Amino acid sequence: MSGASTRMRTQGGASPKGRTAALIGLVVLLFGLFAVASPGQAAPGGPGERIDVFIGFDRTPGPAEQALVRRAGGDIQYSYTIVPAIAASVPVAAVDALARNPRVQYIEPVIEITLLDEPDYEAELANTWGVEHIGGGDAHEAGYTGNGVRVAVLDTGIDGNHPDLAANFDPDCSWAPDADGYTIDDGHGHGTHVAGTIGAVRDGSGVVGVAPEVTLCAYAVLSNSGGGSYSYVIAALEEIQAFNQDNPESPILVTNNSYGSSGDPGSTVRAAFDNLYADGVLHVGAAGNEGNPPGRGSNCIYPALYDTVMAVAATNSNDGRASFSSTCNELELSAPGVSINSTWIGGGYREASGTSMASPHVAGTAALVFANSTLSNDGVRQVLHDEAKPLGSNRLYGSGLVQAYASVLAVADAEPAPTGTITGKVTDDDGAAIEGATVTVGDTGLSATTDGGGNYTIEDVPEGTHDVTASAEDHVSQTKQVSVDEGETKTVNFSLEPVAEPATGTIGGTVTAGTGDGIGGATVEAVGTSDEGTFTTTTADDGTYYLDSLPVGTYDVTASASGYDSQTKQAEVTDGQTTTVDFALQPSSTDDTVTVYSIDYSTRGGRLNDRHLDVTITVTDGDGNPVAGATVEVDLKLEGERYGSTSGTTGSNGTMSFTANNAPDGCYTTVVTDLSADDLEWDGSTPENSFAKGTNGECS
What we know:
18% of the residues lie in helices and 34% in strands. The chain is built from 13 helices and 39 strands. It is flat and about 95 Å long.
């Protein structure tokens, strides 16, 4: 569908009715005989086939307009109020008649949206740094956290149980379409990563967002597989509009849009963004990862290209443009987008790169400004531009690098936070001073090192209660809670105990072949089941091995050697003892062939469930195991003559499927013309197969 939309947009000057006529022709031309099987999606072009469209009316659609669409055979997905349009699946043959109705202003295709792939540029990888780099930490220290502002994350959802997001996530301002694979809880991870950069809590662990007290609202316009549709985007914007009307005291003020398409989704989508922007909501969008190292060309994506969406480019830790970041005259700001560490589903964390990661830095900064001013979305947008750090060409960087602290200071009373002082002494358990010990104050970033007398002083400690920790080499760290008052000095002394020698043991044994002969050079790895660590060694020529100084605990011990199947056993390590673990490895299979195991047929569609012909090819290795990622090329023959050709890639179950739409009756056979898989050689054979479609007997 996206290909049809893109081609239509190149036909400048055509009227809405003319573009509708062009759509009919393009849909037929863009789809051929075969389509790799995709559940729930039919290929337009033949009699009775359908297409997803936006139908624009001259008024907000009501029962009469909905009835008009249904009479044309349309299945309505959404009837919008934010724009005068209906999203529906309609028969291709009915598009022309619908377009001629005087109440219909235009018909546009609904194109798909996708996540922005993460480019793999190892040279740009760096430690977590983005929020600090734009002054987020300084803003937090000064008390600016985004409290009271709601931000909508239009993405794959948000893991609301993540320890860094749970306090800020609000399911009551969230939404997901009623469709399989779409959930506010995020089964993908992209939305959770974006949400962490915007609003992960500031609690001294994990990561922190630009606005750590913002309220996060999930709008799942993308499924757990990362795909979606602009029809869901419009529905989400309409849900936000309705939420704001019902909650005028606490509306959603910012949307983050880290997704997009290279093709223009059309006037319906543009109007939805424009109308919500007119209501006071600020839209922030990823500019795209379609750029090139020299920064040539104009390659930003939608919806960031719209006037009412702030297009955000990505930069690295040296304030240089990320080589993948899209470039265009519509760029407004830049933000960190390389190796950004943030929250991930399941309570974890992950680094990612892309303009998807840059956009939430700007969305979080906008939340800080909204929280500390009475500015409109236009006003906040201007502040972000005015306070940005210039980096160079607007086509590459927009106004420059977004500045969180400078932006909020431009609109808020920036009185310095009240502070006090902490001082004291660090000794061992015998009272002797410890030189070079480190004393830190919670998550403030403040620390000091003790002098020869064990003394330390830390000034400018923010007023409030802090965990103060003293640590020294070969000693057990100690933490005390201290209440700091403005202008006062608190004395905090520490007495550190020496670190006890850990209890350790040994694992040893032999690695032999099935014949009983020792295997030299085999690898033995012991992995602790409770964070004891991982320890590795290799066997001597006679197959013996020893793993010394293992902390006491339970280990999974694995022996592996070239030409043999690996073996794993569990062992318990006790203090001062040697645990014996012997292995007898069996030779590995040497069969390196890949074969077509079976070819199966079925039909579906139509009144008798026999319109389309589905063909499934199963690929296995020489041991009968399914082979994933194999490329299969086939000819489908009808009555012995080639009917068509296609290719595809096997999934995790070793199967590849394709469909012959509206296949005529007759005897079908399938011939595999090529089969390739990593490290495996095709045996060149195709199993006997045939299928009699619409006939009473078998193929002769």
